[in-house]
Structure of 3-keto-5-aminohexanoate cleavage protein:
Amino acid sequence: MPRPVIITCAPTGGIHTPSMSPYLPLTPSDIAQASIEAAEAGAAIIHLHARNPETGQPDPRPELFQEFMPRIAQACDAVLNVSTGGGLGMTREERLRAAVATSPEMASLNVGSLNFGIFGMLGRRTDWKHEWEPAFLEMTRDFVFKNTFADLEYVVKELGHGHGTRFEFECYDLGHLYNLAWLIDQNWLQPPFFVQLVFGVLGGMGADLDNLLHLHSVAQRLFGGSYEFSVLAAGRHQMNFATQAALLGGNLRVGLEDSLYLGPGELSPSNAHQVAKIRGVIEALGYQVATPAQARERLGLKGAENVTF
């Protein structure tokens, strides 16, 4: 029998802005509630960012994470995964602040630099709630999301060695798989590895099935039985790529960080709606959904009792 599918939910992220959807969680209370509901709907892992509760801007302050992470942990058993991607334009140290402060079971790690263009969203509206929103989108026309080899070494040693945190390795392009292989070759990482294949971001891999199949093949050759793969795709590609991931024997990620929609032209009323939808697809295909306990065992996590939130 195939292994149960691990669903990750990313409730808010640092890409979409408040004007784009009234359902995007912004305050610590909103993020906590959205995360708990997603876990109840079937998400085993919650991938977390924080936002300024007044403006909705991505915000790296650990005190914001400490407002919602304990509440989530008290209400459900989901694995809490703290982003080290933060918000576009943050320094490496800013992006790490929350993970260092909370010592989570998991943290994300983008394993390569790339052009990260979200300026295409500018033309979709003119009625912005905050002045920062169009400026934030426009600056990505001349922006590189920096994750150098020095950055990767720093994060792996600071969080992995220093805190026992394991990683969601986010790979936006083929070369990122080889960057991860290089980290492994340095003996800085031990299996199992959780590889998140990311599609549909301008500057990274396009959301084409051929790309998914090729990366799956390369990852299998590089990492063999030492890894689990998961797939996320931005925007309208979210659900069909999540379905393909399950069919390939992998795992998947949904959430309003990746897509604001539940279907064509239909804003998702919550993160839980997306989790419930993909869970229905998975179960209709004859697969099971993994519990947090199963995710912890398969990914070799240190356990919820060994965090600092």
User: Anything to note?
Assistant: The domain at 7-116+145-306 is CATH 3.20.20.70 (TIM Barrel). Residues 42 and 275 are 6 Å apart (CA to CA).
